[in-house]
Amino acid sequence: MPAIVLLGAQWGDEGKGKVTDLLGERVDYVVRYSGGNNAGHTVITPDGQKYALHLMPSGALSPNAIIVIGNGVVVDPKILLQEIDGLTERGVDVSRLRISGDAHLIMPHHRALDRVVERYLGSSRIGTTGRGIGPAYGDKVARMGIRVQDLLDPGILRKKLELALREKNQILFKVYNRKAMDVEAVVEEYLGYAERLKQYIAETRTILWDALDRGENVLLEGAQATMLDMDHGTYPFVTSSNPTAGGACVGAGIPPTAITKVIAVSKAYTTRVGSGPFPTELFDEFGQHLRKIGHEYGTTTGRERRCGWFDAVVARYASRLNGVTDLVVTKLDVLSGLEKVPICVGYEIDGERVDDMPMTQTDFHHAKPVYEELDGWWEDISAARTEAELPKNARRYIARIEELCNTRVSVVGVGPGREENVVRHELI
After folding, report:
1. Which of 46, 287, 309, 377 would you label with 29, given CA atoms 20 to 30 Å apart?
2. What is the pTM of this model?
3. In this structure, are strands 50-53 and 97-100 parallel, antiparallel, or unpaired?
4. Is 210 a catalytic residue?
5. Was 305 annotated as part of a binding site?
6. Cβ-based neighbour number of residue 237 at 10 Å
7. What is the predicted pLDDT for the residue at 383?
8. Is residue 118 predicted with pLDDT exceeding 60?
9. CB atoms within 10 A of CB 207
């Protein structure tokens, strides 16, 4: 039963979509198991076409894979239909899409509350995308969520929405002085979505179990990344789900014994979007250099990403937490032209050296990176396809990451295109 988990080892935006697309022709199913349209995957096809995907699994661009939105995802049906229409217009076959009936829906009151609460928090804001992800997951946990399957029963949809808005409208109007939501208008809007989406709604757990029983390859595609995990990330500056390997089992209904490989993706440096601690963040010309050369702007939000040197403490933590078997290091080409390339190998906290992730939020906020400087390289590496074609210092850099993370680096990205990779070990 070969299930493969693909996830991010940092704070997201590592290039997971590119890796999913790279593997897409060799897997039979690609499953999105967490998050919502607060995530974005950018995929560039061999003919130079660029696709920005938010809810659709990146496997949508592979010609044969069945693409699945699992029960752990929160779905904004308006956004999903926009993606379906956009892909269809560009000749992509989306008939292979299956959506779990147990996935929860993002409703208009979720988006409204997300935006108004962030504004209310001011300087203490989390840095959400304002797309209603957190409030939707909050209602899920509070057992008052509305699910994809409810689109198929207008009576249930109206009843659940009335119950939800009984509370949410009071909060919007009395606390935040915002306009209350109209039940009938929302029901009418969502029943319109139901008419178009019903062909894709399915019992996805059974579909995936049957596929595994047949020995087919199932790729479980994470959104966001390890350090944004609700339980294991830099809380409270995290997402509202579990993008780690354990979350793949919960969010797709896959038994843990089915997972045979865990692939983690990491940039050759580090980025983060939104608020929260970031020990290796750069505020100088090197940070600007990484942002400019690496085109570090969010796929979903367009926001500038915070940039810093590679943090081996974070990467090693992600490797151990997720049971990573293969590490993919992307954007090595961005580091070309630097005289020295530092790697954070530990932290200094209150005058003491620590090599593992600090236990408390306070310690992580105060952590100062301990750097080890490696010699850089000047060559353009974008045409390299074998390890031997990489400059000696680039090979040393990758070898040091491998050593510090105690995980083999199987693929090195040397450009944004699907084929711009150095494959050291085959992933499948």
Report:
1. 46
2. 0.91
3. unpaired
4. no
5. yes
6. 20
7. 94
8. yes
9. 18
